[in-house]
Amino acid sequence: MATVEFVAHDYGSDQTFAAARYRFDGDANGWRVYRDGRLVLELGPGYRLLRARQCGVCSTDLARHLLPFPLPQVIGHEVLAVDERDRRHVVEINASHAARGVASDCAFCRAGLSTHCPERWTLGIHALPGGFGPWILAPVRGCLEVPDAVPDSAAVLVEPFAAALHAVRTVAAQPGDHVAVLGPRRLGMLVVAAFAGERQRQGLPYRLTALVRDRALGDRAREFGADAVEVVDDHASALGAGSFDVVVDTTGNPAALATAVRLARREVHLKSTHGQPSCGLAHLTGLVVDEIAIERLPGSADLGEAAPWQRLRTGRRPRLAWLPSAPPPAWLAAEAFVRCGEPAALLRAFAADHDGLPRADVAVAATPAQVDAAIRPVAGDERSLVRPRGAILVPATAAGSGSPLLDAVAARGLRLTTSRCGDFAAALALLAADPELCRLGERLVTHHFAAADLPAAFATARSRACIKAVVDHPDGAPA
Ligand SMILES: [Zn+2]
Ligand SMILES: [Zn+2]
Predict the structure, then answer these.
(1) Number of helices (H) and strands (E), helices first, in the chain?
(2) Same structural domain for residues 381 and 461?
């Protein structure tokens, strides 16, 4: 039986902090979390107790009251922690069956989609007490020891850097491309750094431009590896349509997506979860959370390996949800198992399938309302009609829908890709091999705060003067 007791700042739905007394009790069956003497969370096996050393403040923390998870909670998910022998660890935040190392018949963990496990808690975001408190309970297989070559200042950024690297690998820029990162700041600077690091590692010639509103951020983007900087207004009105092959929107601003769509020839990558409507669509944050793409429905002459459902490599006949009122073309039935109907009924039908994931692999949607319905078919239910990393396909006939995004997809074949959490091992390996990249902490972090001053850290993190704030815990005795 292990027990720790401590006082930590709870974050409340009114965006204020309040001190609470916590106790973690652990035994062979798992851990129990008590707040002010009351049992608030019972965890099964597969967690280990670590002491938090540092924790970064990210935009998700600042918008935590907008997310669909209960408060109060100790938040903070960008954690550098130490174990009982003072070894340093970074912690994968999705406490899935796979990350906990527990047996289950979870289709998502089995399919290698553990960051989408529907039964996961999320460290410092959903239920699991986070790294702004002095102790955390981390999923055992989600703890990665930090190599000596990676200093604390870079290790505390591994969670957002892994997310940035995942975006870069999802985009997969090609030789000769011109890639723009729109609005690099807290997360976007790490996207610039990840592009520069990956480009170096792969020896790929592509150009990287940072689009900033503030010249000082441009200088910083150059330090992180951008080849060029453009200082632009809110709509980047000085830049012509199709100025770049790929535009990565890291602004966190719903108005920026239309700008990214206008500037991109081939692909827009969306890396923002602001929880607000954008480009005539209500559920784009759900799209990013589920890492779903939006692209044009190919014609019958345009299939083979390139078809969106072939790229998913499901190993079986792809499942397709058809939402338009017009019937599907006859050739589609030869490519995929097609179900037509109302989105909520289709969600139930695919959820009852037992081979593979209980979702459609792709959905076809011809209007903004149908795209929204493919992302969140049932109000108050966080399940998508489409599987994580699947796609929503828009027919060419949908041009003129009123959504600038869907019009660009339908009329000129623009692709929208999205991504969320990344692979910590890949991020650590890239950092450990690149001393220049290891300086990303000293370049990005503008403010440090003691954990006792968490409210001040949040106030500063919201200000324009701050790019990145990190909270430091006093060095106590090892666990
Ligand atoms: Zn974050
Ligand atoms: Zn699972």
Answers:
(1) 17, 24
(2) no
